[in-house]
Design goal:
Number of helices: 2
Strand order of the largest sheet: 3-2-1-4-5
Shape: globular
Radius of gyration: 17 Å
Strand content: 35-45%
Order of helices and strands: HEEEHEE
Helix content: 25-40%
Length: about 90
Amino acid sequence: MKRFPSVLAFVIALFSADMVLACCVTTGQIVARDSERQLVQLADGTIYHVPNRVWLSKLRPRSWATLWYRERDGARVVWNQEVRSRFRRFF
């Protein structure tokens, strides 16, 4: 019986961490990339800073990307990404 509250607390903490990360995910088509400033702009007009130059080389205009980001000092900083050449929907 004493294990139940600790397991419940662990499950609640796990789900709350997933919900925090889920709010910082976006998907869209890349329309512009600035290699000097390490910035990427999506079709909806949002701009993201990509600190990793290896990732920046993969983020090319006209490709679709899913970006995981964090807000730091008013800027959106990408900490993970997934790139594909076309947008695919699964219904």
